[in-house]
């Protein structure tokens, strides 16, 4: 039996990543309730279809997917990851997806456990072409799903939900979300939190440790990537902001300051770790080191010659 938790044991830490988050309080629920997406039959069917195609972040060899990002090279253990991700509007067809996320995971032989959260544009899944926040997990016995499609994620926040459309900004405005996946030292549950710079962080909810058989105690790999899922025809969608990264920070999709949480639950900067760069199609996408509070820039236009 799982005992419901209303907040993590680290509920009142100082902000560990500075940066504005654009995941605003879109919904205010009455006491005793939380926001949950209505799982229509069509939404469930689409989510099941995309679950089968979803990128396994622990390998760079997933059919129809392309990635640009970084991950740790040693085998942990890790207790979490924190990062700021710029958010962009893209023209994505209904048989494609483009997203950016943080993740934690472990794998052995043909078995994997992982958790991801970030933002995604997927018209088939969400019903429109806007950027949505999302979560995805894969656990014991191959179980797992997007958001709250299946039993697993426990929504706790009454104002910030795991999955929802991210607000549009006036022309010229820049959007970003700052998110974390962090294991609770007392319970072992994996929490996702909306990191705020000038107000208290919002603990959205958690994936109970009982869902997993490889990451119930810790994770071996953590990372941050931009990813795409090509259409069945082989046409790959744009990634990031749809442009190759340049020296112009404002003109590139960005991953800001990234921090990892070590086995002792200590938050450390990414500069204290050796990171592996991941880029599997330099014809269509790019990856460029950042400066100061930007870890890296990434993205590209996609196309029909990106490989499989």
Q: How would you summarize this macromolecular structure in one to three sentences?
A:
The protein is mainly beta. It has helices spanning 41-53, 123-126; strands at residues 65-72, 78-87, 97-108, 111-121, 132-138, 144-146, 154-155, 164-165, 175-183, 190-194, 202-207, 221-229, 253-256, 259-262, 267-269, 275-279, 286-289, 294-299. It is 6% helix and 36% strand.
Question: What structural keywords apply?
Answer:
single chain; 308 residues; mainly beta; eight-stranded antiparallel beta sheet; seven-stranded antiparallel beta sheet; 18 strands; Glutamic_endopeptidase
Explained architecture:
- The protein has 308 residues and is mainly beta.
- The protein has two helices and 18 strands.
- It has helices spanning 41-53, 123-126, and strands spanning 65-72, 78-87, 97-108, 111-121, 132-138, 144-146, 154-155, 164-165, 175-183, 190-194, 202-207, 221-229, 253-256, 259-262, 267-269, 275-279, 286-289, 294-299.
- Strands 1, 3, 4, 5, 6, 8, 12 and 16 form an eight-stranded antiparallel sheet that branches. A seven-stranded antiparallel sheet has the order 7-11-10-9-2-14-15, with no helix packed on it. The protein has a three-stranded antiparallel sheet with strand order 13-18-17, with no helix packed on it.
- A hairpin with a 2-residue loop joins strand 3 (97-108) and strand 4 (111-121).
- Residues 14-21 have low confidence and may be disordered.
- InterPro entries: Glutamic_endopeptidase, Neprosin.
- This is Neprosin.
- Residues 58-307 form the Neprosin PEP catalytic domain.
- Pfam families: Neprosin.
């Amino acid at each position: 039996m799982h005992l419901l938790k209303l907040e993590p044991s680290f509920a009142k830490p100082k902000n560990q990543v500075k940066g504005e988050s654009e995941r605003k309080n879109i919904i205010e629920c009455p006491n005793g309730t939380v926001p949950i997406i209505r799982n229509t039959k069509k939404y469930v069917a689409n989510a099941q279809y995309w679950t089968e195609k979803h990128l396994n972040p622990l390998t760079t060899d997933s059919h129809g997917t392309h990635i640009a990002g970084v991950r740790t090279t040693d085998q942990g253990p890790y207790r979490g990851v924190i990062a700021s991700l710029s958010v962009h509007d893209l023209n994505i067809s209904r048989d494609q997806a483009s997203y950016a996320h943080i993740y934690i995971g472990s794998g052995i032989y043909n078995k994997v456990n992982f958790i991801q959260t970030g933002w995604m544009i997927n018209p088939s899944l969400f019903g429109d072409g806007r950027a949505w926040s999302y979560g995805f997990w894969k656990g014991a016995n191959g179980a797992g799903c997007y958001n709250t499609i299946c039993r697993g994620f426990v929504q706790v926040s009454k104002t910030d939900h795991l999955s929802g459309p991210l607000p549009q900004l006036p022309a010229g405005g820049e959007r970003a979300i700052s998110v974390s996946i962090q294991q609770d030292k007392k319970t072992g549950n994996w929490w996702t939190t909306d990191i705020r710079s000038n107000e208290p962080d919002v603990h959205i909810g958690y994936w109970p440790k009982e869902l997993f058989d490889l990451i119930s105690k810790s994770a071996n790999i953590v990372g941050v990537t931009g990813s795409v899922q090509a259409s069945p025809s082989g046409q790959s969608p744009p990634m990031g902001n749809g442009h190759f990264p340049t020296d112009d920070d404002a003109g590139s999709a960005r991953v800001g300051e990234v921090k990892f949480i070590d086995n002792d639950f200590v938050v450390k900067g990414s500069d204290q770790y050796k990171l592996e760069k991941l880029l599997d199609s330099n014809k269509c996408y790019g990856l460029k080191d950042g400066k100061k509070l930007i870890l890296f820039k990434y993205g590209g236009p996609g196309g029909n010659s990106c490989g499989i």
